[in-house]
Design goal:
8 strands, 2 domains, globular, DNA-binding, homodimer, 8 helices, about 210 residues, Arc Repressor Mutant, subunit A, about 45% helix
DNA sequence: TAGATTGTTAATCGATTAACAATC
DNA sequence: TAGATTGTTAATCGATTAACAATC
């Protein structure tokens, strides 16, 4: 029903709502949310109607209600635990990313094959890859992030899948095959930069010929 | 004409082609590329036709030709220089990301307001934010990455824009307003994880009710 | 009541897919 | 020639947008 873009927009609305709440706003109009998410107010209302979220005609939406409704959709009503496989630069950056925790996302452990990176005596331990299955089972982990080199990614995914992981965000620059009943999203940083390059150059050409 | 997804697919085709080339492949069929990019072969041919790339009926495509044609589209015929603003965890990870350089993407400098992070005596210097305008002008930089906290992002974008930057990848968790003649893409890591959570939970429910 | 805003149905737009013609 | 593959035109699908009805 809802597509990826729609869920991304819901996240953006929610972030904006939380900011507005800290400014002591109580009500918000679809037009306000449209501005922060860079979409139209129709889009906002359409997104809400998809999930049966309704406001007050003439009176907009109550921010508190809206936050809790969107939060429920996005699974923010409870803490969601993730593990990170591959503790290179990206993996480390994710483990130290400050704003996850205040948004109910908790990275609970890292895994790596390099024993020099292992460390159990910290809040978020870095463990050997062999312990992944046991850890996932014992801690009931559903989600994981792959930040290993491209050649290792598919194998790591299969390891995670066999351990029972159901949702994966992949930073390795390769398009992974989704196992059955497992959601995989690929983010390729190089590809994102290439996108910027293409559209910038394209806009320049279009601008020049105008 | 081409949309974002199409350019992402071109990047994926190119990555796959480079791998195939190292395996001494000479020719490739649209069906092969479809497999690596997880799309259909019609999609591949349609993408190519959009850019006037043609192969040999019955004989597929010559890998060398294809790589150079896609490379030209993606601006890989020359090195593209980027700067990184905000040298936190993400910024550092990007500066150390190994595979950019072999794909004609060069991160040439970092910028930060924290003087403890400044360092001129390395290959990729970390400079004070005040020097951004001068550096961009002297080194003819067109592209940049924002990896500062959310509250600083819009201001940094405007600084970059005034300096002459034309394309920006933003990692700050806020949807930035595109200045005129400047391309901005937003990647929000939290939102990506929220996406995984939603679609995983959704798939589970759908699976359970089946 | 008049005006502003929500919410829904219909129209449009754009991207993907299907069908098939071209040709090596 | 027969078979496999490319390349294009038309059909479909899904998401966004427009129009407008509902109502506070």
């Amino acid at each position: 029903m809802a597509n990826k873009s729609c869920i991304i927009r819901l996240s953006m609305y929610r972030n904006a709502l939380i900011r507005l709440k800290t400014l002591n706003f109580v009500k918000v109009f679809s037009d306000n949310l449209a501005d922060v998410a860079r979409v139209t107010s129709v889009q906002v209302r359409k997104d809400f109607s998809l999930f049966g979220i309704s406001g007050n005609r003439r009176g907009g939406y109550l921010i508190d209600e809206l936050i809790s409704q969107i939060s429920a959709i996005l699974g923010k009503d409870k803490v969601q635990k993730f593990i990170v496989i591959g503790i290179g630069n990206i993996g480390k950056a994710l483990l130290n990313y400050p704003s996850f925790k205040k948004n109910e996302i908790e990275l609970v452990a890292g895994f790596d094959i390099d024993m020099n990176k292992h460390n159990r005596d910290v809040e978020v331990p870095i463990l050997p890859l062999e312990e992944l299955g046991k850890f996932v089972a014992e801690n009931e982990i559903k989600f994981g992030v792959i930040s290993v080199p491209d050649f290792a990614a598919q194998e790591v995914l299969e390891l995670m899948f066999r351990a029972g992981i159901k949702g994966v965000l992949n930073f390795a620059p390769i398009c992974l095959k989704e196992p059955p009943d497992c959601v995989v999203r690929n983010i390729n940083l190089e590809t994102e930069l290439e996108n910027i390059i293409y559209f910038t150059n394209f806009a320049e050409q279009a601008g020049a010929s105008r």
